Structures are given as C-alpha cells and as structure tokens.
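Researcher: Quick sanity check before group meeting.
Model: Go ahead. Protein one:
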Amino acid sequence: MKKIVPLCILLILLYSCADMKPPKPETEIPEISTYYFIRHAEKDRSDPNNEDPDLNEDGIARAALWTKVFQNIKFDEIYSTEYKRTQQTVSAISLQSDVKLTPYSADNLYSEDFKMRTQGKTVLVVGHSDTTPQFVNKIIGEDRYPDIDDADNGSLYIVTVVGDKTKVQLLTID
C-alpha cells in the first residue's frame, strides 16, 4: 500500500500536466517602417531640351535646407532616381547619414522586394512630381495623393507602416 500512494500521486501529476497548455507567447510587437518622401529641389530650366538638368541656385539652397531638416534622422536606406537633380538634392543627406544612395526605377514603385528590404527601417526616397505621390499611394494602397504641382519642391510625405496599418503626414517645408 505504501508503494501505491506515491505511484498514484505520480500518475495524478502526470495526468494533470498532460492537459496543461504551454504559456502563450508574448504578443510580438510589429516592426515600424518609416518612409520620408520628397521631390527633387528646383532644377535649372534654362535649356528646355535638357532632360537631366542640374539644380539651380534655389535648388542648391533647398537641398541644404533638406539636409538641415533631416540632420537628426538616422536613415537606414536612401533611394533616388538616377537623374542629377534627385541625386544632387540628396547627396549631402547621404553623406551626413553615411548611407549610400540606392537608385530606383520610377517604373517599379513599391515592389515586394522593396517592401521586404525596407521593413522595419527608416528610409528616404527622392523622386519627382509624379513618382513621389504615386510611391506614397502604392504604400498606403489608395489613390489619395495627386501629382505634385510643378512649382512645389517643398512637400514632405512621411509614411509610417506598423503591421498592416499606415499613417501619412504631409508637410510643407519652405
């Protein structure tokens, strides 16, 4: 009888443990991706046949202003189209952040590859009057933002993605 009692206790413990469920894992905190979108600074329009002009004096000043605006933001990635005006707009920011410019094609905005490479990162994207709002629209999954007016070089779109939720802020920096 003395041997049966410990055996019964052991069986009861084993049986009760078999029904126990493992503890729930802590809820995962989704990664936050933050995208900053700007249009290139003012370009030299003196030669209407030049499809790849440099920045003009106002554009050089605006590029310096963007550098100040972003001085306290640590970018993980910086994307620019391959036009001189976009690269000149962001080159000082790239140096300041110690992040190499990555070219992107306006024909392939917000691909699955781009989404995966930038997930959980802080990213700056420099584009054009039509590509910048289109890129934002692709990320948010809506056709909310129209092309930027040709005289507007100071719009800043900040898109935050947390899980499947997106938030957009549109600021004007002058």
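Researcher: Fine. The other one?
Model: Protein two, sequence then structure:
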Amino acid sequence: MVGRVVAGGVPIAVEDHGGHGQDVLLLHGGGRSRGDWDAFAGLLVGNGFRPVAMDLRGHGESGEAPWSWREALGDVAAVVEEHGLHRPVVVGHSLGGMVAALWAGEHPECPLAVNLDGHGNPTRPDQFSGLDEGRADDACREMTAFLTEMGRGLPEWFLQVMREIDALDLFAVYRAARCPLLVVSGDAAAFAGMFPERLVPAWNAYCLWTRRQLEAVTEEPSPVRHASLPTGHDPHLEDPRALLRLLLGQLRPA
C-alpha cells in the first residue's frame, strides 16, 4: 500500500509492504527509489517482519525540496510517527545508509541501524592510504575533478546531496552511534569500474583507508560492527537472501 506523509511541507511517498512483527524502515540510495527494496521487502514479510519503504525527498514520488541530513532525518521521523512504526530497524543503502547511521546517533531505542555500502567519496589527500604525499595530492585533485565532471548537468538539489555527503565525517557519525549499528561493505573492486583506468589505483587506496578506519572504529568499545558481502555496491539487489541472512544474524543471534 502506497501513501503520502507530509514532512515540513514536503510530500514523502511511503510504501507499507504489510506483514507482522518487527517494523523495518528501508531507505534507498542516491538517485534511486523505494522500488529498489521490493524483492528484499518480500523476503522480510516472509520472515516475520513488517517492512516499510520510503522515497527520500527529491527521489521517486516524493517532492523536491532543499536537501540536508537534518531535513532527511526529519522526513524519516515523520514516516515513523505517521505509520506507527515501533522502534523500527532502519536499513539504508548508500545515501540511505548514511541517513541510517545518523539515525543511530539520535535513537538509542533503535534495535539496529544498517548502513549498506554507504562509504562516501574521498575529499582529502590523507584518505589515500599507501600513496606518498605528492601522489596522494595528485590523486585527490584528479578524483575531485572527475567527480565534479560527473556532476555536470545534474539538478541543483542532487548536487546539494553530494555536497552533504562530502562534508559528512562518517567515522565521527559511527563513533556517535547510540544503538547497534552495522556497516556492510560490498566488493569495492566492482565499483572501481566507474572510474577511468588511471584513477583505479587512487580508488583502491581510498578503499584501503576506509577499511582501516572501519577496523579502528570496530576495535573500540562501541556498538558498531562491520560485515562484508561478496557483491558489488547493491547487495540488496544482487543477493537479497544473503543480506537477509546477515540481518537475521544480527537481530536473532544464535
């Protein structure tokens, strides 16, 4: 059943997939829509959950509006309230995963938040592990230029999304988590295909930096855990059953 929730004057499209049991709120990635979750939502219903998926502002059938993390979290809160979701598990992919991680910092009652392969983009030379200072500076400059060129012609609201991502310190967000937070990584090598060959070493260096930062966070006393799946950037589309098993393992430990 598809409905609308108005959050701060913005209509937010919401799809309740039915089912009974633990509520699960599903957040899609940037430039995508709630339909990405259809197959996974069906699996959740069959395993005793009630999944609800929403279109983030500016996406799918939701209204376009200024974009910020605070406004996105307000939209999520409005959906939770209007649909009567009780302490929902919040699972997000990419952009939605970052929203889920921020939710974890504000909702200690949340049983689990999941960031599914939402690692952001490199913005500083120190994020290119294994490259010396000069090569790291060059890698950062070339990567920034490439990503900027990719953004040409995109609508302003989406460019604002990208600026919000670039300004977010995800590892500070992880360290601020107040409920269990699972960060899931796909195979970063599969994502390297979007870059020209000259930038693949830089991308790999950034992925190495990300893994090391995640290892540091999970070694600290914190509610953050990390897991990997042998998929690309879209585990919920490529292997939804593997993602379900991972989720069940977190919520129903043996």
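Researcher: One line on it for the slide.
Model: Residues 175 and 217 are 7 Å apart (CA to CA).
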